[in-house]
UniProtKB/TrEMBL annotation:
<feature type="domain" description="Aminotransferase class V">
    <location>
        <begin position="15"/>
        <end position="225"/>
    </location>
</feature>
<dbReference type="InterPro" id="IPR015424">
    <property type="entry name" value="PyrdxlP-dep_Trfase"/>
</dbReference>
<dbReference type="GO" id="GO:0031071">
    <property type="term" value="F:cysteine desulfurase activity"/>
</dbReference>
<dbReference type="InterPro" id="IPR000192">
    <property type="entry name" value="Aminotrans_V_dom"/>
</dbReference>
<dbReference type="InterPro" id="IPR015421">
    <property type="entry name" value="PyrdxlP-dep_Trfase_major"/>
</dbReference>
<dbReference type="InterPro" id="IPR015422">
    <property type="entry name" value="PyrdxlP-dep_Trfase_small"/>
</dbReference>
<dbReference type="Pfam" id="PF00266">
    <property type="entry name" value="Aminotran_5"/>
</dbReference>
<keyword id="KW-0663">Pyridoxal phosphate</keyword>
<keyword id="KW-0808">Transferase</keyword>
<protein>
    <submittedName>
        <fullName>Probable cysteine desulfurase</fullName>
        <ecNumber>2.8.1.7</ecNumber>
    </submittedName>
</protein>
Length: 239
């Protein structure tokens, strides 16, 4: 099995995914795509991957809801991690039981029905715009953002124009402090290592401020961000 992220939020690596897909098909290797970071702007399909996983909060949907899409051939090969009434097809008098033979095997218990409705609405919202227009919007914003970031003194930029996120740090101010300051100005970023604990072992710089772009953002949002980033050093230790 090979598990990969087509796009990640720690470092912008560029892999030959076409080669990986073809390799896995040739040698019958199960290929898992962690699409959490890419699902909102890159099409992905089970024609290429055996398993696709993502969180709906990355797709303009509710928190606490994930999607695990997998090819039907894998259903009988996977073992359960959670058990419940919804997993069972039959319970016999002698207390033996049989599991279901379809996807509901992996959905024991009562589902989060409210989240399903919210997820459905997030799909409607996104489909009104579509992947093509989404990519155009995000690329335009990314180019503008990365150009404006160069105006901020003592700022290190780790991402590149065209990336859908920006990774930055001030030279002498911890990432969390920068993010806290921006939050006090109603600008919400995230700081840290973004669930990638192993990153500490493979590169010296592993904590960043991450600026995520969405289709609801505009250049006025970026101008406000840049204005406050220029104030970070002068206000450090005060807020």
């Amino acid at each position: 099995m090979i598990s990969l992220s087509v796009e990640n939020n720690n470092f912008q690596s560029k892999e030959d995914y076409e080669f990986i897909v073809n390799y896995c098909k040739k040698y019958n290797v199960i290929l898992v795509n962690d699409a959490a970071q890419s699902i909102s702007h890159q099409k992905t399909s089970l024609n290429e991957y055996d398993v696709i996983a993502f969180s709906f909060n990355k797709f303009y949907g509710p928190t606490g809801m994930g999607v695990l899409a997998l090819k039907e051939k894998l259903i009988k090969k996977l073992s359960l991690s959670k058990f419940g009434g919804g997993s069972l097809a039959e319970v016999k008098k002698n207390k033996d039981f049989n599991f279901k033979n379809n996807l509901t095997l992996f959905e024991p218990g009562t589902p989060n029905i409210a989240n399903f409705f919210m997820a459905d609405k997030s799909l409607d919202f996104f489909n009104e715009i579509g992947y093509e227009q989404t990519q155009e919007i995000l690329n335009d914003l990314s180019l503008y953002l990365h150009e404006k970031l160069t105006e901020v003194k003592n700022l290190v930029i780790y991402s590149s124009p065209g990336d859908n996120i920006a990774l930055i740090n001030f030279k002498n101010i911890p990432a969390q402090d920068v993010s806290d300051y921006l939050g006090s100005k109603n600008i919400y970023t995230i700081a840290g290592i973004f669930c990638s604990q192993y990153l500490r072992n493979i590169q010296s710089q592993y904590s960043f401020v991450r600026i995520s772009l969405g289709i609801y953002n505009n250049k006025k949002d970026i101008d406000k961000l840049i204005s406050e980033l220029k104030n970070v050093e002068g206000n450090y230790g005060i807020w």
